[in-house]
Amino acid sequence: MSSAAVNGLSGAGGGIIAQIITYPLQTVNTRQQTERSTKKRKARSGASATPASTMYQMLQLIQTEGWSGLYSGLKPSLIGTAASQGIYYYFYQILKNKVEDIAVARSKKGLGDGTVGMLSWLGIAAVAGSINVLLTNPIWVLVTRMQTHTQAKRKILESKRELLLKEMSRANSLEVAVLKDRLVKLESEKARPYGTLQAIQEVYHESGVRGFWKGLIPTLIMVCNPSIQFMIYETLAKRLQSKRSGKQLPKRHLTAMEVFLLGALAKLGATVVTYPLLVVKSRLQAKQEIGSNVMSRYTGIFLYVQWN
Q1: What average pLDDT does range 136-164 have in this prediction?
Q2: pLDDT band for position 89 (50/70/90)?
Q3: CATH no. for residue 244?
Q4: Could you report the per-residue pLDDT of 208-236, keeping only the tens digit for each?
Q5: SS3 290
Q6: DSSP annotation string for 247-275
Q7: For the stretch 40-75, what's the b/e string if a residue is b when 16 or more beta carbons lie within 10 angstroms of its beta carbon?
Q8: Residue 274: which domain range?
Q9: What is the rounded distance in angstroms from the CA atom of residue 87 to the CA atom of residue 15?
């Protein structure tokens, strides 16, 4: 078996384990990212928009939807994780081998020392990440839909209920009776089973084949996350080293704890910088129609910014 295949299988296995452990947090996080109508109504009414804690939302989700609610869309998510990690590491290893061969060939001609520069490594990671995004984006669209289905369904029912109540306030006695019957039916309506096949049909019905690649642009931009992390890490490491030299301390390599802390800070910084793109991606991939309000649909990254 080739090294690229081994790396791909290893990445897929590790990704599946990590996904199973963290999936409930991902579900809550996705719902937080796609929530907007409630916050807007609170803002208009002057109410404070204090977000509930992640733990509170997890407990609330368990209470209303059971433990299965935390794992909505887990099956396609595991497939997506295995595919993403496998594709990424497979193409990364292939590109790495090519670049290393080129570096060795150049060194034989007296060009370079035969090693691959850091910029080349970042470029390889970006290309492998872009290939991964292009191939697996449809899976993550389905996962987002399944994670937010109950939330979207609740919003649609709330919107329909508000519309019926407005009609009742303007209707005559005969019309009110009819509208009351419709309201009773609406409030007794239960969510239908929602699986992968239903999600596929819904996405195709809304946007056709191109709907499976919604959120592609922000996701491709997020491929730069490792590059931002590396730049922050190198900057922090150099500052730490220069501080030591300024205090005339003996020069030594960073300790394991220092590397860990700098790496954590760098990852935190890169996540903060790219998080808005993650929110945009989730909202583009979530159910696009909130009730009957077509203006609430996001059809692209620029329209997302316009409506928000």
Answers
A1: 80
A2: confident
A3: 1.50.40
A4: 898 899 888 888 888 887 778 777 877 88
A5: strand
A6: TTPPP-PPPHHHHHHHHHHHHHHHHHHHH
A7: eeeeeeeeeeeeeeeeebbeebeeeeeeebbbbbbe
A8: 3-307
A9: 12
